[in-house]
Amino acid sequence: MSSPGTRSFIREFLILVGAFQRNSLVATLAALGMILGAAYSLWLYNRAVSGNLKPNFLHKFSDPNGREVSIFIPLFVRGATVR
User: This protein's superkingdom (predicted)?
Assistant: First the structure.
């Protein structure tokens, strides 16, 4: 899913313009697929972030323990130094 003003949006738009010049039916189907994909992504994000939480399942999740933190620290350090 690309948002207007981003590089991926410009790429998708230019691809669709080129596709419309060649075959408008295929380009229309591609545009419809992109729109449905974006709508599904937004629906899924909304459901995952603010969906119905069932309190009886929340006790199964806990804060990361020491072993998990020691695994993720090198990944965070690596990610910070790559930039």
Answer: Eukaryota
Domain that holds residue 13: 7-82
State pTM to two decimals: 0.52
27 burial level (CB within 10 Å; 0-12, 13-18, 19+): middle
pLDDT digits (tens, 9 = 90+) for 34-68: 888 888 888 888 878 877 666 676 677 778 889 98
As a whole number of angstroms, the distance between CA 78 and CA 32 comes to 39
Tell me the DSSP string of 12-78. Answer: HHHHHHHHHHH-HHHHHHHHHHHHHHHHHHHHHHHHHHHS---HHHHTT-----HHHHHHHHHHHHH
